[in-house]
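[recover] target loaded
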């Protein structure tokens, strides 16, 4: 079994599904000849031609609007937003139309597409290139939102997304595109959408993270294990629909919850998880839920980026806080 990084794993999933389904069309800025800014689609235009891997103008609203038209015409488009900060011009198409078509047509015209988008900070990029606006998407009924934390899930989630009956936003944590490698089967497989994964068992505290922060949570758990604190780490994987049942079950065991995410603190998904756990497992909590998040500011430029982003040390402090309550 070959070891791959996230870039290679996503590319493999796209390649295999394009070979299996000739209705799949990739479109976006530089996705063809250049293979994308991060080379995720490298080689696919050469293999499948310019009619299935389409280089577009710098026009996010048009890219996603064209994808909607393609989907309504029976194709399975995979539009790319080059960086998550440029998603906003496309929100009208995504939230007002794509997300609503199943309801608008009473289920007769569901829209199948997968919107790919590099996500989050950690690469020392300029403004609009390092945000985490997942709350906007998760708050929009009709959208499925997923994000992998490792190469195996990256391939499996992409394959599952391309076979999903509804629109999926596939958030790609760019900080770990090439930072981690893992075994990825060559054969086709899927990772189930809507199911979180316990990636490390523990009995004393639960840490929930997704995307690039799963690696930070795992590093924190390893340090704390040396201090006799058993941390259970959960990779949420699917942000919408959110698998809070797995989180609640873990909290009923550990009695403590820390949620880590890059997005700003206010109205981040940590608040939603906190509310769900409070509603469903209040009597199991031994301490208030702790959120380890980005700050309520615009993502700073690179000199302050590492101060803004949650890391293993901040997660460790969060766990120690709930343990000491």
């Amino acid at each position: 079994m070959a070891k791959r990084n996230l870039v290679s794993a996503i590319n493999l999933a796209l390649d295999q599904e394009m070979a299996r389904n000739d209705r799949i069309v990739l479109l976006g800025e530089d996705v063809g000849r250049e293979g994308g800014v991060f080379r995720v689609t490298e080689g696919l235009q050469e293999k499948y031609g310019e009619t299935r891997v389409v280089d577009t103008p710098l026009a996010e609203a048009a890219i996603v609007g064209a994808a909607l038209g393609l989907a309504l015409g029976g194709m399975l488009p995979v539009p790319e937003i080059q960086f998550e900060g440029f998603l906003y011009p496309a929100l009208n198409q995504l939230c007002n139309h794509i997300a609503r078509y199943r309801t608008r047509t009473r289920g007769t015209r569901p829209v199948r597409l997968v919107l790919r988008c590099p996500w989050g900070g950690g690469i020392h990029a300029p403004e609009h290139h390092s945000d985490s606006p997942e709350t906007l998407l998760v708050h929009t009924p009709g959208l499925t939102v997923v994000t992998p934390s490792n190469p195996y899930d990256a391939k499996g989630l992409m394959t599952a997304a391309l076979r999903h009956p509804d629109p999926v936003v596939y958030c790609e944590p760019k900080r770990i595109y090439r930072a981690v490698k893992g075994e990825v089967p060559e054969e086709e497989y899927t990772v189930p959408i809507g199911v979180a994964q316990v990636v490390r068992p523990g009995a004393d505290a639960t840490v929930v993270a997704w995307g690039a922060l799963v690696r930070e949570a795992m590093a924190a758990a390893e340090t704390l294990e040396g201090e006799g604190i058993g941390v259970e780490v959960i990779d949420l994987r699917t942000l919408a629909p959110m698998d809070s049942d797995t989180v609640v079950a873990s909290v009923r065991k550990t009695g403590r919850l820390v949620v880590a995410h890059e997005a700003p603190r206010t109205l981040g998904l940590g608040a939603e998880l906190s509310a769900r756990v409070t509603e469903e497992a209040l009597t199991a909590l031994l301490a208030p839920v702790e959120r380890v998040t980005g700050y309520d500011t615009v993502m700073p430029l690179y000199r302050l980026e590492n101060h803004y982003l949650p890391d293993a040390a901040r997660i460790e402090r969060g766990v120690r806080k709930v343990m000491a309550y």
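[recover] notes: Residues 3-183 form a domain with the Rossmann fold fold (CATH 3.40.50.970).
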